[in-house]
Amino acid sequence: MSMFKPSILTLALTAAGLSSFATQAAQEDTIKKDDVEVIEVKGFRGSVVESINTKRFSTQVVESISAEDIGKLPDSSIAESIARLPGLTAQRLDGRASRVSIRGFGENESGTTFNGREQVSIGDNRGVEFDLYPSEIMSGVTVYKTPNASIEAEGIAGVINMQTVRPLSKGERVFQVNGQYEQTSFDKLNPDGNDDGYRGTISYIDQFADDTIGVAFALNTMSSPNQEKRWNSWGYPEFTADDGNTYSILGGAKPFVRSSTLERDSAMLVLEAAPTDKLNMTFDALYVDFTDEKILRGIEIPFAWGQGSIDSNSVVVDEASGFITSAVTQGQRVVVRNDYEEREAELTAFGFNTKYDIDDSWSVEFDASYSHVDRKVWSLESYSGTGRGDSRGVADNLGYTFNGSNTGATFTHDLDYSDYSLIQLGGPLSWGSSKALNNQYGLIDADGNDISGYKDQAQDGFINAPTIEDELSTLKLAASKVLDNEYFSSIEFGMSYKEREKTKDSQGFFMTLSGFSLDNPGMLAVPEQYRMGSVDLGFIGMGDMIAYDVNGLVNDGYYSLLDESLTNTSHLTKSWTVKEEITSVFAQANINAEVSGLALTGNVGVRYVHTDQSSQGNAFNTVDDIVVASPTNISHDYSHVLPSLNLSLAIDEQQTVRFGAAKTISRARLDEMNASIDASYNTTQDENGNYWSVSGGNPNLEPKEATGYDLTYENYFSDEGYFSAAFFYKDLTQWIFDGKYAIDMSGVADPSTGEIPATSEGTGSGKINGGGGDLYGYELSLALPFKVFHPSLEGFGLIASHTGIESDIEDQNGNEYELPGLSDKIQSLTVYYEMNGMQLRTSMRKRSAFKGDVYGLGFNTEQVDILGETIWDIQAGYDFSEAGVESLEGLSIQFQVQNLTEEPFTSLSGDNALQVRDYQDYGRTYLLGFSYQL
Predict the structure, then answer these.
(1) What is the secondary structure of 15-27 as a DSSP string?
(2) Strand partners, 496
(3) Cβ atoms within 10 A of the Cβ of 38, count?
(4) How far apart are CA 545 and CA 640, in angstroms?
(5) Regarding beta strands 677-681 and 598-623, do their DSSP bridges make them parallel or antiparallel, or are they unpaired?
(6) Pairwise CA distance, residues 850 & 904, whole Å
C-alpha cells in the first residue's frame, strides 16, 4: 500500500492545529497519484466535504466545521454550529447557544483555543462563552476529542480550536460583504426594547510580492435582539393543610418579560509572510467590543413565604405528587420590578508565529501570544408598590394555578398594577436588613432596636456591579525532525510557558430614594418624564404593570447608594485574584508504519506540566455587624505527567480504525480555588487540633484527572459521505466536592483583633479533591449524500448523529454525583438540498435532561435540573453565481428561522415535574441576509 509521507510544511501545519491545510496537501498528493477527476463542490456541501476530510486525515479523533469563505459558517453563531457535531451540545443562555458540552462534560472541563492558543474568558471561571466570538470572521472550528502531546490547552472533555483564514493558502484576492436583518417573533415586550437588529461584515484577503506576503482583514458589527417571557419561582416549601397532611406549595414567584440587545463590534487581522520556501511568519490580532443590554420588568409575588393568609378552601392538591397546584392567598403585597442590566466586555488577542526549515529534515517554531479581557456588569433593580414596608399600602388577593405542562403558573389578582397613582417608587416589603442602612437613616438605636417604625424598610432597589479582568501570556518554542524509517515519520519536542491572572471584584449597593427620611418616609410617584406606559404580563395572568426609565432615575440622582459590603461578607467572598504560572515540556513521535500491509499512522507522546498557582483575597469576619477583613496570599504548586497515544489503521482506501489513550486534566474552577475566606480564630481547638476556622475558596485545589480510551471505526464511502461508530471511556479521579481541608494562615491577622495569632494552622470548609468514577458512552454518526442511491438525487443529503452516555461517579463519602452538562442522550440531524445555486436546509439538535449552571441571586452560579430540549432551525438560500446572470455573479441570499418550534428552556426546583423553577419562552428569530463577493 502506498503511504503518504508528509512534507515538513505539512507536519508543521498539523502540529499547529491547522489540519485542514494539512488535509489539503494530503488530498492533492493523493489526487496526483490516482489521476482522479476533481469536481468542485461549493457552498454548504463544500463545507461538509472539507469537514469530512479534516476528520479523515487527522491523526486524532476530531470533529470539525469549516466555511467556504469568511462569514460563511453554516450557522449564525459558533456555538450553534459546534452543537450539531457528534457528541457535542450547547446550553442556551438567555436564548442563545453559548456553553458547549463535549461527551457529557460541561464547559469548564474543555479547553478553548484561538489559532491553537488558549483563550481568556468573560465569565467567572474558565469556560468560554462562544457568543463573544463572531462566527462571521472564522474560517472553521476543530474539536479534538483525543489529545496529543503538542496541544497547548487542557481539558478532560477535549479542546475546541477556532481558526481564522491563512491568506497565502487562499491563493486569490477576495473582497466580500455580508449583511443580515434580524427580527424576533415577539413584538416589543418592553416599550424601550428592540425586536429587530442587523449584522454586517466586510472582509478582504489578498496576496502580494509574488505570493510571499498575504493579508486578511475583517470588520464585523452586530445588533442582535432577543426577547423572553419568563416564569421564575422562588422555591417550593412544605405546607400543612387542614387535613393534617404535608404538601409542597409555591413559596413565591418572579415572572417577568425581558428585552435584550447584544451589540458586538469586532476586527480581525492576519498578516502572513513567506519570504523563502523555508520561512513562514504569521501575525494575527482580534478585537471584540461586546455589550449585552437587558431590560426586565415583572412582579415579585410572595405566596407561602409571604405575609398573606392562604384560603384553605382554595387549595387543590395533585395526589400523585403531593403538590398544591392551585391556591389563593389573601392580604398579600407584591414588589413591582423595573430592572436594567448591562454587561460590557472588551477582548484583545494578539499572536505571532514563525516556522523555519533549517534543512530538509529539521524545523523550528516560535510562538508568542497575549489575550486580555475586561468585563463589567451593571445590574440595577428598582422596586415599587402600594406602600413602604410590610404593612403599609393596599394588599391584594392573589391566586395561582399550575396547568401541568411545565410552563409554571398563572395568577389571579384584584389590583391594577398599571395605575401610576397606586404603584409608586419605594420598597414595598422589608428587604433592607442591613445595620449600616438602618444607621444611615436613623432607623435604629445603638442596640439595633427599631426607634422609627421603619427598621429594615429603607431599601428601594439594589445594584450589583461585579467586574472581571483576565490576562494570559504564552511563549512556545518547538522543533521537529523528519525521519526516514519504517515506523516514524517525524519527532517533535518543545516547551511552553503560560502566565495567567484573573481578578474578580464584587460590588453591591443599596438604593434608597434620595428624599427618604423620617420626615418624609413615604413613596414617590414616578415623575412624568420617566414614565414609559405599561408592560403586558398577561402570559401569567397579571395584566399590565407600570414601566419607567430606571436608568434615567438613577443617573438623575433620584436614588442614594450605600455599599452593601459594609455589613455583608458575600462581596468579599466573591472578590479575589488567581494567578497561574504553567511550564510545559513535551515530546512526540509521529507514526507512519505498515502492519501486515496496512498503513498505520498516529502519534505517541508525553507532556510534563508544572503549575505554580497563587491567590490573593481576604480573610474576613463580622464584628458588631460590621465586616472587618485582612488580606490573604496563599500559594500552591503541583506537577502532572500526561502521556498520549493516537493510532489510525487504514483497513483499505475508505475504512479506518482509530484508537486513542491519554491522561488528561481539567483545572479547578477559579471561584472555588480563590483565597477569599470567612475566617475566625477560636480560643479552643477543633477536632483537628486547629484554632483557625475557615470557609470559602480553597487555593490548594488541584486539577481533576482522567485516563481516557477511544475506539472508533470510520468508513468514508463517498467524497461527501461517511459512517463512524465510536466507543469512549474515561476513568475519573481527583474530582472536586464539598469537604474539609487543612489550610496555612501564616501572616493572616485575626479579623476581630487585627493581630497575627501564634498558630497558623486552620481547618477549612469548601471544595476538596476526592472521589471519582467512570464515564463511558458511544457515538454513531452518518453523512449520507443521496446520490449514492441514484444520480438523480445529486444535491440531496443528510447528516445525523446519536450519542449515548452513562456515568458512575461518587464523592469522597460514596454519595452518587451527576456531572453538570451531562445529557445521557444527544442527537443531531441536518437534511439538505444544494444544487445549481439552490440551498435548502433544516437542522435539529436534541438533548435529554441535564444539570446545568445558571446565574442566581447576586450573580452566584447555581446548579439546577434542566429539562431536555429539541431545537429546529431552517434555512433557504440561492447563489446567483450558478444562475448564469453576469450582473449577479458573486451574490447569494439566505433566509433562516431559528427555534422554529419555539422550544422553551425549562428548569425544575423540586422532586416532581410540576415544580418549575424557570420557564423561558424565547419565540422564534427570523434572519434575512446576503453575501456579495468580488
Answers:
(1) HTT-HHHHHHHHH
(2) 476, 584
(3) 9
(4) 58
(5) parallel
(6) 15
State which amino acid sits at residue 722: Y
Burial environment of residue 39 by CB neighbours within 10 A (0 to 12, 13 to 18, 19 or more)? exposed
Q: Is-above-0.85 flag for pTM? A: yes
In tens, the pLDDT along 198-249 reads 999 999 999 999 999 999 999 999 999 999 999 999 999 999 988 889 999 9
Alpha helices (runs of H) in 408-477, residue ranges in sequence order: 435-440
Site of grid cell 419607567: 548
Per-residue cell: 789? 442511491
Q: What is residue 834's three-state secondary structure?
A: strand
Alpha carbon distances (Å) from 240 to 243, 244, 498 = 8, 6, 58
Round to whole Å and give the CA distance between 474 and 464. 33
The whole-angstrom separation of Cα 274 and Cα 705 is: 41
Which helix (DSSP H) or strand (DSSP E) does residue 642 occupy?
A: strand 626-650
Residues 6+ apart with CB under 8 A from 221: 198, 199, 200, 201, 264, 265, 266
**Cβ atoms of residues 252 and 298 within 8 Å:** no
Show Cβ contacts of residue 774 under 8 Å, excluding neighbours closer than 6 positions: 729, 730, 731, 732, 807, 808, 809
Q: How far apart are CA 283 and CA 271, in angstroms?
A: 5
What digits encode the pLDDT tens for the residues 536-565? 999 999 999 999 999 999 999 999 999 998
Q: Look up residue 487 and give its three cell numbers.
A: 515506523
- Helix, strand, or coil (residue 347): strand
- List of E strands, 386-466: 396-402, 409-412, 424-425, 461-464
Q: Residue 569, Cβ neighbours under 10 Å: how many?
A: 20
What is the DSSP secondary-structure string of 286-323?
A: EEEEEEEEEEEEEEEEESTTSSSEE-GGG-EEETTTTE
In terms of DSSP H, where are the helices of 777-833? none
Contacts of 485 (CB under 8 A, 6+ apart): none
Sequence letter at residue 201: T
Least confident of 42-46, 50-54, 660-664, 846-850: 42-46
Give the chain's length: 934
**Cα atoms found within 13 Å of the Cα of residue 688, Cβ hemisphere only:** 15
